[in-house]
Write a structure and sequence with these properties.
five-stranded parallel sheet, globular, four-stranded mixed sheet, 14 strands, alpha/beta
C-alpha cells in the first residue's frame, strides 16, 4: 500500500513501533519525522524536499511521519495534499491518535491506504501469557483472558498489572485493581486532556456520562473515536474501552453479563443487585463487607479480619468465626445472584476480597469525583471543577454510615473521608468566589469550618475561611 496509517489512542506503542521500523535496515530510502504544534508548512516542505531529493531517483522513498494529530490545520492540509498525490515510488507511513487527520475515505476508495488500529496494536492472549511468564509471573489462560477483556489489551494496563503482580504476587484481578488505583490521577489527567480535543457538544455529553452515568449514543461515541479518545469499534458498534469505566464507576457497566453489586456506605449501609437488596443474616457480615469496601484493593487477610472483629478471642476460634461469616456472606449474595455467581463478587481464599470490577460503590465514586475536580483545577477549567465538587458533595450526604451503629473499626475511615469532604467544601467556597457567587461561597466556607477544615495553607487558610464565613 502507498499509505499506511497507524492510528490509536495514547499508550498503544505507535511511536516506539515507528521509530524501530525507521531504524531497521531497508533497500528503500527511509526518513522519520515527528510533527509538533509549532511546525509550519514551510519548514515541513524544506524537510520533505531534502528527504526526497537523491541522485538515485530509482530508489523508492519511504516517509515515516509521527504525531500527525499535533499538526496545525495548515500543516495537515499540506500533508494531505502530499499523500493524495503520492507517486509510484513513494510510500507514506503515518501515525496519529486521531483518525480524522487524514482523508481515509477517499484514499480507501482509491485503494491507496491500509489502516492499523488499536485492535491490531492491543495485547493478545498469547503475547500477554509469554510476557508474564518471562517475568516469573505465570498465569492461567482464563486469568489472562479476563485481564484482556477488562482492559481491552491496552499496553499500559497490561504492563502495569504485571508490575503490581511482581511487587505483590497473587491474583491477576487483584493486581489489576491495584494498578487502577495507583494510576487513577494520571489516567484522569490523560482523559481530561483528550476530551479537550472533542467538539463541545460531544465533550459535554462525555462529561455527563463520567460524572452521572448518563448514556452515550452511537453518534457521540463515533465522534470520540474519530478524535482519538479511548473508544473501540466492534463490527460497526462503538463502545468505551473497559478500563475507562474502571476509572469512572458511575459510567461502568458490568462486564460479561455480570450485574453490578451496588454498595452504599454514605448514610445507612445498603447493598443491592438490580434494586434487589442483599439481606444479611447477621450485623457482623455487614461490618466485614463495609471493612473490605474501605480496605486498600477491597481486600484483607484472614488474620487481619480476625483481629479486628474478634479482638481478644483465641486465634483458632476467631478464624472459625470468620469462616462462618464467609459462609453467611456467600449465602446472602447467593440468594440474590445465585450461588454459582457469588464468586463474581466475593472471594474467600487466603484473603477475603471484593471484586471491584463488579461493584459500584459510592465511596469510590466520591473519591473519583474529588480526583476529577483536582484534574479540572489543574487544567484551569473552573466550570468542570465545580461540577465534580458538587457531585462529590451530593455523594457524601450526611457522611459515612450516618444512622448506623458506630463501630470502632470504621472510625479512621470516617475521619479521613470527613476531612476530604471538608476540603471539597472549602474548594467549592473558593471556586464559587471566582465564579462570582459570594453568598453561596460564604455558606460553603461555614460548612467547611464545621468539619474543622485545615487546608493546604494550614492555619492561615483556616483563618481565611473563618473571616469569609463571618463576613
Amino acid at each position: 500500500m502507498a499509505v499506511r496509517l497507524v492510528v490509536a489512542p495514547p499508550g498503544f506503542g505507535k511511536t516506539c513501533a515507528l521509530a524501530a521500523y525507521a531504524a531497521a535496515r531497508t533497500a528503500r530510502r527511509r526518513h522519520y519525522f515527528a510533527l509538533d504544534a509549532g511546525l509550519t508548512p514551510d519548514t515541513f516542505a524544506r524537510w520533505f524536499a531534502d528527504a526526497t531529493s537523491s541522485p538515485d531517483a530509482a530508489v523508492p522513498v519511504e516517509i515515516v511521519i509521527d504525531d500527525l494529530h499535533l499538526a496545525a490545520p495548515d500543516l495537515l492540509a499540506a500533508v494531505n495534499a502530499l499523500v493524495a498525490d503520492v507517486g509510484p515510488d513513494m510510500f507514506f507511513i503515518l501515525a496519529s491518535q486521531r483518525r480524522d487527520v487524514i482523508d481515509v475515505g477517499t484514499l480507501f476508495a482509491r485503494g491507496l491506504i491500509a489502516v492499523c488500529d488499536q485492535a491490531q496494536l492491543a495485547f493478545r492472549a498469547g503475547e500477554t501469557q509469554a510476557l508474564f511468564a518471562a517475568h516469573d509471573a505465570p498465569a492461567t489462560p482464563a486469568a489472562i483472558d479476563a485481564l484482556i477483556a477488562r482492559c481491552d489489551g491496552w499496553p499500559p494496563a497490561i504492563t502495569g498489572t504485571l508490575r503490581e503482580l511482581t511487587r505483590e504476587p497473587g491474583a491477576i484481578d487483584a493486581a489489576y485493581e491495584r494498578w487502577c488505583r495507583r494510576w487513577t490521577v494520571p489516567a484522569l489527567d490523560l482523559v481530561s486532556t483528550l476530551l479537550e480535543r472533542v467538539p463541545l457538544g460531544e465533550r459535554a455529553a462525555a462529561r455527563r456520562h463520567f460524572a452521572e452515568g448518563a448514556a452515550l449514543d452511537q453518534h457521540t461515541l463515533a465522534v470520540l473515536h474519530r478524535c482519538g479518545f479511548f473508544v473501540r469499534c466492534d463490527a460497526g458498534v462503538f463502545a468505551l474501552m473497559n478500563w475507562v469505566g474502571d476509572l469512572y464507576p458511575a459510567s461502568r457497566p458490568a462486564g460479561g453479563g455480570r450485574r453490578p453489586l451496588e454498595i452504599g456506605l454514605f448514610g445507612r449501609f445498603r447493598a443491592s443487585v438490580d434494586g434487589v437488596p442483599i439481606v444479611w443474616a447477621r450485623r457482623r457480615d455487614q461490618h466485614i463487607v463495609k471493612y473490605l469496601m474501605l480496605a486498600p484493593g477491597a481486600s484483607a487477610s484472614r488474620a487481619e479480619l480476625a483481629g479486628v472483629f474478634w479482638p481478644g478471642v483465641a486465634r483458632p476460634l476467631a478464624l472459625q468465626n470468620l469462616r462462618t461469616a464467609c459462609s453467611t456472606i456467600r449465602r446472602a449474595l447467593g440468594n440474590v445472584v445465585g450461588m454459582e455467581r457469588v464468586g463474581d463478587y466475593f472471594v474467600a481464599s487466603e484473603r477475603l476480597s471484593l471484586n471491584w470490577g463488579a461493584i459500584v460503590g459510592d465511596v469510590d465514586r466520591f473519591r473519583r469525583q474529588v480526583a476529577l475536580a483536582a484534574a479540572a483545577d489543574a487544567a484551569g477549567s473552573l466550570d468542570d471543577a465545580i461540577v465534580h465538587l458538587r457531585a462529590a458533595e451530593r455523594l457524601y450526604g450526611n457522611g459515612l454510615f450516618a444512622g448506623d451503629d458506630s463501630e470502632p473499626a470504621f472510625l479512621a475511615g470516617a475521619q479521613e473521608l470527613a476531612q476530604i469532604y471538608a476540603g471539597v467544601l472549602a474548594r467549592l467556597s473558593d471556586a464559587l468566589i471566582e465564579f462570582g457567587s459570594p453568598a453561596v461561597a460564604r455558606e460553603y466556607a461555614a460548612k467547611a469550618l464545621k468539619f474543622g477544615f485545615i487546608g493546604r495553607a494550614g492555619a492561615a487558610g483556616t483563618q481565611k475561611h473563618l473571616r469569609f464565613a463571618a463576613s
